[in-house]
Amino acid sequence: MSAALHLLVTLAVCAAAAPLLVRARWVWRAPGTGIAVWQMLALTWVLSLAGLLIALGLDPYDAPIARGLARWAAHAGSTVASDHLVLGGLALLVACTAALVSSWYAVVRVRRRHRDLLTLVARKDAAAPGALVVDHPQAVAYCLPGRPSSIVLSTGALHSLSAVELQAVLAHERSHARERHDLVLLPFVALRVLAPRIADAVALLVEMRADDRACREHGAEALVAAISRFSTRPPAGALGMADAAISARLQRIATASTAPSWLRWSALVSGLVLVSTPLSFLVC
Amino acid sequence: MLGNLGELERAAMEVLWDHGSPMLVRDVVNALSSRDLAYTTVMTVLTRLAAKGFVQRQPDGRAWRYSPVAGRAEYVAQLMLDALSLTGDREAALTHFARQVSTPEAEALSQALAEKPDQP
After folding, report:
1. Domain residue limits at A53
2. How many domains would you assign to chain A?
3. Per the confidence metrics, is the pTM higher than 0.90?
4. ipTM of this complex > 0.85?
5. Closest by alpha carbon to A143, among A162, A115, A109?
6. Are A142 and B97 within 8 A, CB to CB?
7. In angstroms, how far is CA B117 from the centroid of its own chain?
8. Which strands form B55-60's sheet, in the order they lie side by side?
9. Residue in chain B nearest A214 by alpha carbon
């Protein structure tokens, strides 16, 4: 029973922490830490919920989860344990894994097709070394992650950026590619239906992390100018999230401060403590 | 990413786009004569393009004639649509510099593509 109680408390802590972290502004000053805390929080939430169901189901065995699960599996269809709770917990783990796998499969398919198209119509351009250029007036810049990764610019983007702004954009995209931000985002996008605001918060932190790199290499001024070029859009259409995200990015580049290391370390340690709770019950 | 084979696929595609009517492998080899390619190389490239759905082939006697499935502008439009779409799989498939909510542009591109109903 103590396992169930611990997991219940862990879930409550997760439930309380998530909205606070969505609203937190210190994570903007330490995006890498913020991303790590979100990853630990998400893992804790899934493992704790599954663990709680399984622990409640196996309560009659009065044994640690792993041993209880082995006994439960040995007497299939036993009457002692609450089968539906145990199965629900296991199904949650399977569903999360399946969501990840199917999301990954869909992403790989989109990317393969995109890469094939780039081979046919994109070209290299001396103005943007290391990037592929597509002839289109609409300004876009993005990274196609994978091995090898590609950074793609439209001629619209190329023409609207000055040389140093272009360097800042390329540095931002290289950072996405190098740190595999696509893999960071994948679980949050896969489970987006459950927590859309968390997915948005993590996506913003990923952009901020890439901004930091571009800033370090080419200066805040170039980056701010580049971001502004992409965000000046006609007022028509739904300018909600993206607009808020862009003004948040511009604002934090202007203030240019880093969260104190005690704050970053205590956030990381709290995350580790949190994630170790369900792990200790599930593994031991 | 534009490796050797990719470079050839692109060159063959450009020949087909410029020519405007279905071509025999021999015609494509001749059009790419400056590259001094073997007949079988060009045939491999065209077969790969057909497998990816970029070219279609129709029988002509004992040979095949190849033609592009869609124009270059259409493929550019498909790329841009991927780049501008912010929902679903594409969100994780590409990482953007600035996440543009540009529904008017994306919609215009979708419409341009929808006007070609024979598109896969």
Report:
1. 2-283
2. 1
3. no
4. no
5. A115
6. yes
7. 17
8. B23-24, B63-68, B55-60
9. B97
